[in-house]
Amino acid sequence: MRIDAISIFTEYFQALDLSLLGKAQAAGLLNFKAHDLRDYTHDRHRTVDDTPYGGGAGMLMKPEPWGEAFDDILGESDDAPVIIFTSPAGEVFKQSTARELAGRKHLVFACGRYEGIDQRVVDYAATKGEVRLISIGDYVLNGGEVAAIAMIEAIARLVPGVIGNAESLVEESHSDGLLEYPSYTKPSEWRGLEVPPVLLSGNHALIAKWRHDQQVERTRQVRPDLLGE
Ligand code: SAM
């Protein structure tokens, strides 16, 4: 899978060189590149922002550097790319979004800063690929980098081969619309706290039932919206 990110703070993306995604890059499963938007400016100050038409607080990202960045990055794309604008005004990113995007060959993340990006950049991107505006939650960050990293990690770990044990993807939170059950490791008793006896019973059918009941109970308590309640 190929993933590009366009940002004015490309250093953020060094986090993707660590751990499993770093290994996935080394193994050629993930081809990630961060592009500095300022490389597509032509003035001495490498300007990427300007005041908004119609007034209002703050600055907006101007269209020209974005246009040049897309022409450069998407010009090399063999596959129809999905261009993702990180935005608190977008659809909310979910595990189902991650699953869907993990099946695509080329993703491009556009990371906004300031008060966001001139709308014509989004309109122009739509002539180059499939555009999605995606939020990681109902709160406002200073920029799109942290949001893009969260999405990239959630997507890339679903790409076959990135996680060594594919079974661990099956039983985790959100894989079946429920939150994960509580988990325990050794020792069986720690500081007076005991592991639920059923997990020590060796009875796999009972363990599976206990885990499912725990999933439903936890989901009902913490995220009743997932159960449609
Ligand atoms: N004025 C914008 C608004 O009210 O929708 C917020 C701009 S925010 C300060 C700067 C940038 O951070 C956004 O353009 C977006 O790229 C990113 N961002 C902020 N919150 C985000 C979120 N919840 N999910 C994804 N990206 C976010």
Largest sheet: 5 strands, parallel
Q: Please state the overall shape, judged from the principal axes of the Cα atoms.
A: elongated
- Order of strands across the main sheet: 2-1-6-5-7
The structure class reads alpha/beta
Count all strands and give the number: 9
Following the backbone from N to C, one meets helices and strands in this order, namely: EHEEEHEHEHEHEEH
- How far from one another are the termini? 37 Å
Task: Indicate the percent of residues in helices.
Answer: 25-40%
The oligomeric status of these chains comes to: single chain
**What is the beta-strand fraction?**
15-25%
Radius of gyration: 22 Å
Bound molecules: S-adenosylmethionine
The number of helical segments is 6
Give the low-pLDDT segments. Answer: none
Mean pLDDT across all amino acids:
96
List the helices and strands and how they pair.
Layout: E1 2-7, H1 19-26, E2 31-36, E3 49-50, E4 60-61, H2 63-75, E5 82-92, H3 95-102, E6 106-110, H4 119-125, E7 130-135, H5 145-156, E8 189-190, E9 193-194, H6 204-222
Parallel strand pairs: 1-2, 1-6, 5-6, 5-7
Antiparallel strand pairs: 3-4, 8-9
The structure holds S-adenosylmethionine.
Describe this structure in words.
This protein is of the alpha/beta class and 229 residues long. 29% of the residues lie in helices and 18% in strands. It has a 5-stranded parallel beta sheet with strand order 2-1-6-5-7. Strands 3-4 form a two-stranded antiparallel ribbon. Strand 1, helix 1 and strand 2 form a beta-alpha-beta unit. The chain starts with a strand and ends in a 7-residue tail after the last helix. The relative contact order is 0.15. The mean pLDDT is 96. The structure holds S-adenosylmethionine. The site of S-adenosylmethionine has 19 residues, from strand 5.
